[in-house]
Amino acid sequence: xxxxxxxxxxxxxxxxxxxxxxxxxxxxxxxxxxxxxxxxxxxxxxxxxxxxxxxxxxxxxxxxxxxxxxxxxxxxxxxxxxxxxxxxxxxxxxxxxxxxxxxxxxxxxxxxxxxxxxxxxxxxxxxxxxxxxxxxxxxxxxxxxxxxxxxxxxxxxxxxxxxxxxxxxxxxxxxxxxxxxxxxxxxxxxxxxxxxxxxxxxxxxxxxxxxxxxxxxxxxxxxxxxxxxxxxxxxxxxxxxxxxxxxxxxxxxxxxxxxxxxxxxxxxxxxxxxxxxxxxxxxxxxxxxxxxxxxxxxxxxxxxxxxxxxxxxxxxxxxxxxxxxxxxxxxxxxxxxxxxxxxxxxxxxxxxxxxxxxxxxxxxxxxxxxxxxxxxxxxxxxxxxxxxxxxxxxxxxxxxxxxxxxxxxxxxxxxxxxxxxxxxxxxxxxxxxxxxxxxxxxxxxxxxxxxxxxxxxxxxxxxx
Length: 464
Hints:
By secondary structure, the protein is an alpha/beta fold. Helices cover 30% and strands 24% of the residues.
């Protein structure tokens, strides 16, 4: 037998087991897994002695800005960053220019992104309420990985762009949807069988509270939290889970940040609602106490909250309430992230640093490596309908593999990020445990921190 690629002497780690084995790849698929050497030759060999072979990591929450403000990021650089961070598949968010709102814009986006993709990718579609309710079935049929609703945001009726800070009287801007209009989105997505994801913050509450805080003249991080409190997430998640239970829509709550939201999700799941949830490294490793050191780079929506919330999120991971870790990769330039906390944009890169931070947490004993593979490989693949093709190490599936060295240490440096945005809250952080090789359908994209392969990523769709 002749194989294209042999990964030998490594330790395979999946959610269910860990064992030493050799893994054989042929024509982009896993051909065999054996605890003893098989007869035959291989075109390429990787010696993974002392390292772990994981199912390729999946990042379900990436903003690549392409098309749109590509001076911040584009798909070429965002997928380089993903590969550098051990990610083999990303799901790109739909708030691009124009957004992915119908079958035609989906096909245009696939054509735009495929030549730039270093890893495989799925595309989120956007829900705009009455502006595209009728088109949600065709958006689903086109192949979107899920449908996202940016709860509480206004929309420009001409460009379909989101308006993050709506004020009455804005020209050509439709105000945020009513609760009834939002419920109609849940009903329509439920009919497709796709996943509906929400950004869970109550914009009306935030607008009122932020105006109150601004009148006081405060411009500190605690002022930001007073304007976007835990309550803003709690009430939206409560309504979203209730809408999910009533409509049958498969709800995915994005970037959970608070103890209250985690509790609401836990209750909904116990009642049988089809609800899943994710959180991100910045909510697990940062709190409001870090702002004096990290500074405005840390401004993210929803914002990083308090230590008690951080602890509650870890508990939610441990008890299975939160089943996915994502990055919410949202690049901006260093210049844009400098200035008044009220005026600078929210977000920072994260797809490259996510796995090193989580692997460091494995070394610290905060979770097991098997749990990590569930959170970052198997669970996202299952939730979004691409398992076992993605998210598994099974014979016949795509040879998407992340090789990690739990003993290797490095220092995260903003200047070394593969993203266009050289901005991170973790600049100077020392981590132990990093991805050393990223393999997509049998091809090594990253090795020892270097991108060594031209773009070859493909779009993926639920069920294929």
